[in-house]
Each structure stands twice: as structure tokens, then as C-alpha cells.
Amino acid sequence: MASSESGEFLIHAATYLGAAAVAVPVFSRFKLGSILGYLAAGVIIGPSGLNLMRQQEGVFDVAELGVVLFLFVIGLELSLPRLWALRRDIFGLGAAQIVVTGAVIAGLTTAAGVMPAPAAILAGCALAFSSTAFALQYMKERGELTTPYGKRAFPILLMQDLAVAPLLAAIPFLAGTAGGDAVSAANWTSAAKAAGVFAAIIVAMRYGLNPLFHLVARSGSREAFSATALFIVAAVSIVVSWAGLSMALGAFLAGVMLAESAYRHQIETDIEPFRGLLLGLFFISIGMRLDLGVIAANGLVVIGGAVGLAAVKAAILFVLALAFGASRNDALKIGAVLSQGGEFAFVAFTLGVGAAVFTSMQATLMAAIVTVSMVLTPLLMILARRYARSAPDSGDDLEGPVGGAAHVIIAGFGRTGQIISQVVKNAGVEVIAIDRNPGHIRNAARFGFKVYYGDAARLDTLETAGVAEAGAVILCMDDADAVSRAVSAIRRKYSQIDIFAIAHDRMHEIELRRLDPNVIVRETLESSLLMSRKALESLGFPDALIDDYIDQFRERDRQRLLAQMEFGPEAGGEMMHHRFEKRDRTIEGRAQEGKD
């Protein structure tokens, strides 16, 4: 019999899921985005709404796993070379944003007499941070992470995650609760611990992860593969957190280290459902933290503070983005999307109260200001987009032409896939190859081919590999059923994409024809016809006559295939035994007619 605790857990789970199922579609219908829907759901079911859920820190802790997984997925889409290419925006624009925003907010707070200088400095730095989960999810929902403004907004968020540890270490200085020498020694110890942990993680992941995933992939268990990926994320995040750094930063590092792995696409595919669900829970928990009673009692302070925070951050980001070379339209969007306070502020305010830097009321009001600022972000983005559209279009925010054609996905890297890959890649087309056989992947790596691990029969795997932007998908898997499932899934959702499928035999080709790929090539047909040509050549048949015989075979084979599709496998069998006609339309025949 179920215990009361398990029953209560199911009630809580049903409440969360039901609130999200109702609120998110409603807000998405009015183009307000899913994030505002989650926040509204949290307010409705939380202590300030229907009080269906009592706010519990445990809920927020579980929800933070969604942020961790989200940063891990973002890291998977980068790599160390790409990250190094962003260094100017990370350590230039990102660092400048934290310093300038923190200084301006601290100065305004001190000048207004709201709090003393130490508290104002901590508050300014904490409020300078934006919500990584909120901003990245907002851009990801709209496919804007790879746009020019998205590429500049992301490094700013990454620098903020890197700055978490120094800010936490500075709290004792601001509180004045420990001697300078003792604090300094503790900081040096923490820094050494963090550096050692980072080095150990990089070495372990560099040399241990691919063999581990290879071993798990060979087992053929999708559940074990998903569990391994989740374990890696959780373990790295815990170790990095123990070193005094952000768990999200640790997850991001794990993702970056796996970005060049052959298992990247399958890992992202397996983690995506967990990430989406837990990230939604995170935003619901933020909504539950919104204390409507505090806002009602201090309405002008909270609303005014949220509007002021968003305006100050947006203005500073706009100016800094322009200074670092962004176009005006991109600078507007960067300022709007990063204008809110971040989830790290909640941690800083809590620690600040414990260190007697803030009073409990100050921390509560600032937490409310941060939450309301998140609600304002989509509204600011709407204004930024409208203003950007009304401005003259200079084309500054558009990317220039890129050499080469759109990428092609090759699913299945056996003998056929390898040959196709060589031809297409050497023609200057980017190839993303996928195979679910670890042996194929390792063998391909010996000859310099990059093949990703994944089941291409699953649409989510193909979507992770970029099927929506692919110029074509070439399916040459060993499993005929997997090819058919992939064709059906792609054609159902992406009707515009060209699909080239290898059929394993006649019956498979008949099945594929009903699914409507653009091109079907039977696996052994062309090689058999080439061998037939060589045999007839050796027997003295002229080239023109061989061409005509092969054309006749192709026509008969097509007619037989159509008959089989309509009447069954035995139909058209007599066509296989008719002698070819010696038609006068061969080159030799026409030449002879000319002589006559």
C-alpha cells in the first residue's frame, strides 16, 4: 500500500505538471513565451496564489538541476576552439558589463541612502548578473542563439558564471566578519582547490569519457546510455560545486569537453527531455518565490526597482555592446534579453543575510525585484524588436555569405556511407555522419573521419544533428526498418528536405516508395549492373548494345516493381526471363542506317 509521503509526492507532481500544461499553452498562444507561462503557473499554485504548494527549498534545489542540464547542452554545442574564439567577448564585453553595471547600481544605491557601501557593492554585483536559464531559453525557443546578437549575449552570460566564485569569496570581506589574513589564506586555498579540480576534470574527461561511452554503447541499452550521461553531468557539477564554483559552470565545462565527442548528438538527444522538464520546474519555483504580499505592501519599491534595474542594465549593455562592435539593432536586443536579474542573486542575498550584510527585509525586497524583472524581459524584447524593425535596415545584423553548401547528414557509416561521405565532403559540402555502431565509429576515426554516435531512426537524434537546416539527408543504415522509420519521420515533419535512401532489396524499395523519399537506390543494383557491363564487354559486345540492354533491364525492373506494388511479390516474374530485343536505336544501328 502506498505511503502518505509517496501519495503527497504524486499530488505535488500532478500539480506542477497540470499548472504547466494549462499556463504554458495559454501564454504561448498570445506569443508571450513559455517562460512567462511557467512563472505564472508558479505564482498561481504557490503561497501567494491558490496555495496548492507550500514553497520548499527542496523543490528549488531539484529545479536547479534543469539549469545545470541546460548549461551542459549549451556546452555540447561549443568546443574549446570555438570557446577560445569568443575570448574577446567573454573577458572583454562580459567583464566590462559586470564591473560597470555593479558599480553603477552600487553607486545609485549608496547615493539614495538605501544601504551602506559594503551592502550596496554586494547588491550591485549580484544584480549585475542576468538569468542564464531565462535568457538562453528565451533565445533558444526562438532559434536566436546563433544569430549575431545571440553570439554576443552568450559570452556575457558565460563570464557571469565564471565570476560567481570570486563574488562569493568577497562576501566575508564585505561583511568584515573575519581577519584579512585569514580570509586571504582561505581565498588562496579555495583558488588552488578550484584550479586543481578543473585540471583533474579536464584530464579525466579528455581520456576517460569516450572509452566509457563506447563501453556503454556496445551494450545496446538506451537506458544505460542516458543514465551514464546524466551521471557524468551530476558528478562533474557536484565536484565543481565542492570546489566553491557554480554547478552550472561545471556542467558547461563537461559539455564543452564532450562537444568533439562522437557521442555528442546522442547524449544531447537523451538529456533534452530531462532538461526541458526540469528547466520548466525551475521557472515554476521562481514564480512560487514571488511573494505578492510583499509586493502589495511595497508595490512602488518592488515595481519601481524592477523597472529601474531593467532600464539601467539594458542601457549599460546597449552602450557596451556598441563599444565592442555590435550593430545598433543587436545592441538593443542584447540589452533587452539580459536586462533581468539572475538566479544567482537569490543565493547572494541569502548568504548576505547570513553574513549580516543585508537585513531580511532588504533581501526579500531585492528577491522580489529580481523576479519581477524576469517578467519584464519578454516585454522589453517586444519593444526592442519593434524599434529595431522601425529603424532603417542597414544589414549590419546579417551574416555575410559563407563558402560551401548547406550541410548534409549521412546516417549509417558502413561501406556505402563511407564512399558517399568521401565524394560529398571532397566536393566541399559539410558532412555530419551518424552511426549507432561503435565499431564503425572507431574504425572511421582511424582514417580521419568524424562520426557521431546516435540512432538516426529517431527524429530527435536527427534534429539534434541539425536536420531542420540540412541540405539533404542520406540514409544508408544497415537496418532496413530503421531507414523506413527515418524516412517516415523526416517526411512527416520536414517535407521540404531532400531524402536519399538506400533500399536493401526489392521489397524494401517497394516499402520506401510509399514513404516518398526523393531518391531510392537499391543497395546492390548499381554494382551488379556495372559487373554485368564488364562481363559483356569481355565477351565482345559493343558498348552501344550494352547500354541498350542495360536500359531495357532498368525499364523492365521498374515495370516489375510497379506490378509488385499493386499485385504482390509474385507479379511480373515473367519479365525476368525475356530475351532483350536487338533494337535499331543503338549507336551502331544508327551508324549503319547512315551508311545505307
Folded structure, characterized:
This protein is mainly alpha-helical and 596 residues long. It has 26 helices and six strands. The chain has a six-stranded parallel β-sheet with strand order 3-2-1-4-5-6, with helices on both faces. Helix 22 (480-493) links the parallel strand 4 and strand 5 (498-503). The protein is elongated, with a radius of gyration of 31 Å. Mean pLDDT is 79; it is low at 177-183, 393-405 and 589-596.
Give a concise summary.
With 596 residues, this protein is mostly helical. It has helices at 4-29, 34-45, 57-76, 80-85, 87-111, 117-128, 132-141, 148-162, 164-175, 180-218, 222-242, 247-258, 264-289, 292-297, 299-323, 328-337, 344-354, 360-390, 415-426, 438-446, 459-464, 480-493, 506-513, 525-538, 543-567, 587-595; strands at 405-411, 429-435, 451-453, 472-475, 498-503, 519-522.
